[in-house]
Amino acid sequence: MTQKIAVIRGDGIGPEIMDATLHVLDALQVGLEYDFVDAGVSAMDKHGELLPAATMDAIRSHRVALKSPLTTPVGEGFSSINVELRKRFDLYANVRPAISFPNTKARYSGIDIITVRENTEGAYGSEGQTLSPDGEQAQSLIRISRRGSERIVRYAFDLARRIGRRKVTVVHKANIMKSTSGLFLRVAREVAAQYPDIECNEMIVDNACMQLVMKPEQFDVIVTTNLFGDIISDLCAGLVGGLGLAPGANIGTEAAIFEAVHGSAPDIAGKGVANPCALLLAAAQMLDHLGKVDDAKRLRAAIVATLEARDNLTPDLGGEGTTMSFARAIASRV
């Protein structure tokens, strides 16, 4: 059975890494059909808007999108196109795995951590942002809800149970932010009590960051609020070699968008040297989401085998390959 997905080729290096990713997906023969739609600067150039209605309709219709990095123009439009997409489709769960791969520049080995980040509220909300007329004071409202906290913590525990993880760490700052982070922690405790088969521990965010650097092997699944999750997930990417190996899934009840979490890297766009691994790993998350778990395993195994063989690795991984030659090497192993 064919599954149609929306494909956003993106800006900067986006089209290059998307072409490479689709080449590998085609080699997997997983029955995907692509509906190419525009967003970001490329959409502005073609359609006069950053998020055309046709793009929104395609995501809504297919319920799944694979997205390359987008550039948000400075001084106009949304504060972030990615934040706007999450808001419009209520993509409340941001899932960021950080897994050690061979032959990278990572300082650690054996890392396997999943950060589950609340994606729609908290410090990234646009409510209450003001700047005083004299430019001397700024403020912003942080809003945390019981509903938002409950569904993200439950998502983390359900994910842990589904994939056989044994521990969830709830990261918070309830010792200082007693209302907002305090509510999140209280709700997390209520949810955790319903999962007696999964160990739950709590960690203040500053200590969690220190512990991730000192002893990352103690972590399994992390669940936290929006701002903390944004910071921690990038920290975890640093443990395994950087954002070039960092995929992300944005999950809601009506749609899901899978992406490389790094930027559009305009400085290397068109040079054919961008590492496609982050988007390929996001595609593996997408296959898991679509129930094609065995195909996702094949894709990840092919990436590992290619890294082990040092076959056509891109320059950031110490090789002399191109974006597409690296993709072809991975495709040959699926």
Automatic annotation (TrEMBL):
<keyword id="KW-0560">Oxidoreductase</keyword>
<dbReference type="GO" id="GO:0006102">
    <property type="term" value="P:isocitrate metabolic process"/>
</dbReference>
<feature type="domain" description="Isopropylmalate dehydrogenase-like">
    <location>
        <begin position="4"/>
        <end position="330"/>
    </location>
</feature>
<dbReference type="GO" id="GO:0000287">
    <property type="term" value="F:magnesium ion binding"/>
</dbReference>
<dbReference type="Pfam" id="PF00180">
    <property type="entry name" value="Iso_dh"/>
</dbReference>
<comment type="similarity">
    <text>Belongs to the isocitrate and isopropylmalate dehydrogenases family.</text>
</comment>
<dbReference type="InterPro" id="IPR019818">
    <property type="entry name" value="IsoCit/isopropylmalate_DH_CS"/>
</dbReference>
<dbReference type="InterPro" id="IPR024084">
    <property type="entry name" value="IsoPropMal-DH-like_dom"/>
</dbReference>
<protein>
    <submittedName>
        <fullName>Isocitrate dehydrogenase (NAD+)</fullName>
        <ecNumber>1.1.1.41</ecNumber>
    </submittedName>
</protein>
<dbReference type="GO" id="GO:0006099">
    <property type="term" value="P:tricarboxylic acid cycle"/>
</dbReference>
<dbReference type="GO" id="GO:0051287">
    <property type="term" value="F:NAD binding"/>
</dbReference>
<dbReference type="GO" id="GO:0004449">
    <property type="term" value="F:isocitrate dehydrogenase (NAD+) activity"/>
</dbReference>
